[in-house]
Amino acid sequence: MSKPDMTIRLCGPRGFCAGVDRAIQIVVLALKKYGKPVYVRHEIVHNRFVVEGLEELGAIFVEELDEIPAEHVDQPVVFSAHGVPKSVPEDAVARNLFYLDATCPLVSKVHKQAMRHVRLGRHVILVGHKGHPEVIGTMGQLEAGEVTLIETVDDVAGFEPKDPDQLGFVTQTTLSVDDTQDVIDAMKNKFPNIQAPAAESICYATTNRQEAVKQAAEDCDHFIIVGAPNSSNSKRLVEVAKRAGAKKSLLVQRAKEINWEDFNGVKTLGISAGASAPEVIVDEIIGAFRERFNVKIELAEMVKETENFLVNRELRDVELTVSDMAFVNGQ
Question: How many CB atoms lie within 10 A of CB 96?
Fold first, then answer.
């Protein structure tokens, strides 16, 4: 029997961003330089495939620093790309641990913006999602009472600061301009003197991936976002696809999760991937569709990303092999 035709609109850019690439490099380089084990506090990025791959290489993931055995205090511990409260490196120093900070430079920039607001006498408003590791890390740069988390327009309406003329805001990097605009507009309307960050907080990778999905989603019968359910930017891409015209949209971690009955009659499928999803899983999913459909690929590319973030100075004397680079790049 002949297979039904399907056009897959494949978004670009998709998948790993420079911050995720850097974080994975840091763990791989640390393993090469210092040997096993290398400890990682929390998931280095929000993707089980990546985490399990690093575990196979010798990384051990812990939730808190007190889980690191006393006999391994000389082994490095890596902090995740999402950033950590300042209490975490302070705790590492107190425990005589050697740590490597893999916080994405764009997240570090938001930390600096928040601290700048405080230095200038402003109360900080962080626009973001409660409980997200990046939000926990950013709020943890400041003292209690110096920062307020705002998630919705209703939160703005209920917020009554001590001095409405001394406010500054920053945003979670993995939220898009569209995600934050209503909240920021509400803040500016209620607090006309509120100060924006000195530089754009939204991550370039978040914006690029959402713009590509917007371009591809119109008239799509279905749209797949490759990513983890705890990945903020991946979940946003699902919403963006729906808003941009896809009839259906869903988040998928691996090909085995796909309910193939949902794709009966689908002629046009969009595919993208969140910033922590490796390309090998995108290939796996496309391969699964090729087994069942006569697939034609259309590229929906917006821009070419050339950003490259340097790893920690301590690791720059270590070289990655070709196979290392393939793993780091998610291939």
Answer: 9
